[in-house]
Amino acid sequence: MDSLLRKKLNRNNIDGAILLHEINSENSDLKYVSFKLIDLQIGITYREELNWQECCIVVMTGKITFTDGEVTHESIGTRNAVFEKKPTDSVYVSNNRIFKVKAETNARIALCYSPSSKQLPTKLIKGADIKPEHRGKGNNQRLVHNILPDDNPSANSLLVVEVFTEGGNWSSYPPHKHDKDNLPEESMLEETYYHEQDPKQGFVFQRVYTDDRSLDETMTVENGDMVIVPKGYHPVGVPAGYTSYYLNVMAGPKRVWKFNNDPDHEWIINS
């Protein structure tokens, strides 16, 4: 298995866009989730043909104009930095469409993909319509922005969420997994984490492990890194003094998020 920790690429892509991350089935063990992170300077246009994939375009920072030739959304995006903690605008685009994104300001976009064969309408997911959700208690608290949850019927496979965790707290915790296609008890969903920290010199720890420890990798994750979760439990610990942000993308054979906690640690939520 390839390393689960991925560093920035920082390479020029088509027409002046800067490709920071690219995760797909050719460079990872993932079959259902693909991901790109792209920086666009003001005035730069990025174009892509989706074929048999759907895509959620998350406007991480800055403002963009989106078009698929039929639907256009102008100057979308709500923040200059993710740690403003404002829910941002996103656009869902179905398979077999061509889309263009033009940077109205310097912008960073996340492109979240999964396989798709049923075409659905292009849809703007407004940040103003996303209600921030506070989860957990004690040292297990985090702030969640559900961009594309499983109760939103706008997508065939994709699930997309942003999570903010303050220093001294744990997230994706107690350790949980969703790697078995065994509904209603558990769903099989691959996952990626794109991480940022505030201040930027910060780091978090993320462990990805299975019950039999055939996979057991603990990583020091720095600002701008990605972690791939093909299976297993995947908790995140945030050191004091720093705030963690991550963007999760999930997909699998069924668009249902049903997880199970590690039984060794489930007592934590019952105590």
Automatic annotation (TrEMBL):
Q: What class of enzyme is it?
A: isomerase
Is the DNA-binding keyword given for this protein?
no
Top-level lineage group: Bacteria
GO-annotated molecular function: 5-deoxy-D-glucuronate isomerase activity; glucuronate isomerase activity
List, in alphabetical order, the GO biological process terms annotated in this UniProt record: inositol catabolic process
This protein's name: 5-deoxy-glucuronate isomerase
Pfam families found in the cross-reference section: KduI
Q: Part of which pathway?
A: Polyol metabolism; myo-inositol degradation into acetyl-CoA; acetyl-CoA from myo-inositol: step 4/7
Question: Its encoding gene is what?
Answer: iolB
Q: Where does the secretion signal sit in this chain?
A: none
Organism lineage reads as: Bacteria, Bacillati, Bacillota, Bacilli, Bacillales
Keyword Isomerase tagged: yes
Its EC number is 5.3.1.30
Protein family (similarity comment): Belongs to the isomerase IolB family.
Q: Which UniProt keywords apply?
A: Isomerase
